[in-house]
Amino acid sequence: MKFSVVIPTYGRSEFRELAIQSVVSQTLKPFEIIVVENGVIDAGEELVASESFIRDGVEIKCFKTSRAGANLARHFGVLQASGEFIAFLDDDDLWDPRKLQIQSKAIRESGSQFCYTAKKIFNKNYSYYSFDALPEGDLALEIAKRNFVGTFSSVVVSREAYLNSGGCDLELPCFQDYELYLRLLCSGTAC
Question: Tell me, what DSSP letter sits at residue 77?
Answer without folding.
Answer: H
